[in-house]
């Protein structure tokens, strides 16, 4: 499983890196979130899914 952020949709609210910093971080140049290109560790999956569910604009996909 990996995380994906649709940068077009992201409004840069900053929630996902605060919920799951292991996977999500802010791109300081665009002000949008990006997902690290790594396999999500089992012990991080729940946090990543929380971020997916709580993103206000549904910009996150975990797949
Ligand atoms: Fe953007 Fe949603 Fe994260 S708006 S900063 S992808 S919680």
From TrEMBL:
<protein>
    <submittedName>
        <fullName>Ferredoxin</fullName>
    </submittedName>
</protein>
């Amino acid at each position: 499983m990996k995380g994906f952020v649709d940068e077009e949709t992201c409004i840069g609210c900053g929630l996902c890196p605060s919920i799951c910093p292991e996977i999500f971080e802010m791109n300081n140049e665009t002000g949008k979130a990006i997902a690290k290109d790594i396999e999500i560790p089992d012990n991080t999956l729940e946090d990543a899914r929380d971020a997916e569910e709580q993103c206000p604009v549904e910009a996150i996909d975990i797949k």
